[in-house]
Amino acid sequence: MAPLSPDRVPLVAGVLSAVSLAIVFAAAGGYVPSSVLPTAPEAVLAAIPTVNVLISAVAIVTIATGWRAIRRGRVRTHRRAMGSAVGLFVTFLTLYLYRLVVTGGAASFAGPDEIFRFVYLPVLIGHVGLAIVCIPLLYYTLGLAVSHDVRGLRETAHAKVGRVAASLWMISFSLGIVVYLLGRVVYG
User: Which of 65, 96, 143, 176 has the fewest CB atoms within 10 Å, i.e. is most exposed?
Assistant: First the structure.
């Protein structure tokens, strides 16, 4: 028996998406008090953005590897790569939200106002917006993967939704790297 009934995938994906997004918005909105989390040394907090950029770069390669593997019929490699990409995303988000809560908010942009309004902010909005859109797509695609065997999975929307999710996910990670470079390297 599959760990998840196929007819429950949309419901489970919806509930997990709602819970995940509630956690993200609560942390980003300042509704999670920093006192509920352990404190880390300043050096650790300062390193998180760089670690997250490295995670993003590795995730892009991992997603591309998984995509290429499935196109070549290498299901096991695809599963490992996509599972790793999900793990990287969870690690990225955990570190990001931890730093956000502990430091009391996102870092400010130190560059010129014109760059902030016309470059940095649109890239940041695109990065965050795509990340939000990816969450339900990822849960749905993962739900289909765990609720079907390989043959049965071919008759679902897994491949179609997975292509969209993987594309948006890679774009989101790429935009996150641009946000980092603009905010921490070019104008840091």
Answer: 65
